[in-house]
Amino acid sequence: MSSKYKSIETKLIKAGEIEPKILGAVSLPVFQSSTFVYGGEDNYHDVRYIRLNNTPNHHVLHEKLAAIENAEAAIVAASGMAAISTTLLTFLEKGDHLLVQDTLYGGTHDFITKDLPALGISYDFIDPANPQQWAKKLKPDTKVIYVESISNPLMQVGDLKAAAKFAKEHNLISMIDNTFPSPVNFRPIEHGYDLSLHSCTKYLNGHTDIVAGAAIGKAELVEKIRKKLNHFGGTLDPHACFLLHRGMKTLSVRIKYQNESALKIAKFFEQQSGVIKVNYPGLESSPSHKRAKELFSGYSGMISIEIEGGKEASEKFISLLAIPICAPSLGGVETLITLPSTTSHAGMDPEERRKIGISDGLIRISIGIEDTEDLIADFKQALSKL
User: Quick one: pLDDT at residue 2?
Assistant: First the structure.
């Protein structure tokens, strides 16, 4: 981890950069080479080879990601799910058990509920806001506790401090998906978490043109993930590394604008008679607001709402919008809107989805960097036509 720079804004630009500049190039070139000259390495994982995640493009990203979360080390992967699945499988094996937040990104939920049991790994869901109940679900073979800093898609913020403390008290590895706040708003390692996971596809890259993931945290743990990832082959291509590296440099300015814009838009939705629920931790009405205010520098650009008329009305509302793009994913410069029931959480059993509060008509909105007032006017005209 680089401690040379104090502010995240400077770290995003300077941390990890190769000096002196390669042939004077201000932008790091793409090292599009699968193979590098053997340098006498005696460890398989240190041999210079693209699948082993150790090209110059990888190294710079690893340094920069670790620096912006004030962590010891980081590793990038081919997608957010590659990072999540590899990290879980690094520290869980047949006979092990994990505690996991009950509202999760759909891909994570499916991996934990469908793939892990097939490998002999069991799990129990926990309410992240109710730490008094967690100990009841502990087992002698519990190894991991897994939470999301802001849950997808209900924007809940659990008792994140309690989760890190609980892990230490019970000798568990604490993992947190920090995709929604980004390191600009929240840095889990500073609050005692062992590992912070990201879908870099989202805010870290910010331009909707790659998929990537990352695991950030203690060097000893990241090294174990690296070796597992090397065997699984979930390597991020150097050109994708280059795009992620470029996208990260504007992370802070993007996030700060999206924080501000999303809060104004959430307050707008809260005042509309046809909107029956607004999920955004920046709102004082949110059950998560007190915890989010204590922990976060900002509340991200993610909002979810429910409107009168259910799924049919939600689909009509989306079709009436001119600025937001109806598409899955999030965190880019453009505003994206979707129904989680048909995209990010489509793999979940409908009854199970509704049980945890994800209705068929729930609308998830990722606020981009368009003008806030233009977005509000667009949302207003669409609501007026329902």
Answer: 45
The domain boundary residue, chosen from 248, 265, 286: 248
Asked if residue 154 lies in contact with residue 161, where contact means CB atoms within 8 angstroms, the answer is no
Indicate if 51 belongs to the active site: yes
Asked whether the whole model's pTM tops 0.70, one would answer yes
65 falls within a domain:
yes
- What tens digit of pLDDT does each residue of 175-229 get? 999 999 999 999 999 999 999 999 999 999 999 999 999 999 999 999 999 999 9
Among candidate residues 14, 51, 224, 293, the one labeled active-site is 51
For residue 287, the enclosing domain spans 251-384
Number of domains in the chain: 2
How many angstroms separate the CA atoms of 343 and 245, rounded? 28
Instruction: Respond yes or no: is residue 291 known to be catalytic.
Output: no
Task: Write down which residue in 248, 267, 294 finishes a domain.
Answer: 248
**Alpha carbon distance 43, 265 (integer Å):** 53
Give yes or no: 123 in active site: no
Read off the pLDDT of residues 27-37 as tens digits, 9 standing for 90 and up.
999 998 888 89
Residue 147, phi then psi, degrees to nearest 5? -135, 170
Active site residue 254: no
How far lies 193's CA from each of 97, 177, 318, in Å?
A: 19, 11, 38
In whole angstroms, what is the distance from residue 236 CA to residue 197 CA?
A: 15
> In the prediction, which pLDDT does 29 show?
93
Q: Which of 177, 187, 226, 254 is catalytic?
A: 177
Q: Give the residue ranges of the chain where pLDDT is below 50.
A: 1-2
- Per annotation, catalytic residue among 49, 105, 193, 203: 105
Q: Which residue has the tokens 């994206």?
A: 336
Task: Please pick, among 143, 187, 202, 291, the residue that the annotation labels catalytic.
Answer: 202
Residue listed under structure tokens 């680089």: 2
Other residues' Cβ atoms within 10 Å of the Cβ of residue 11:
26
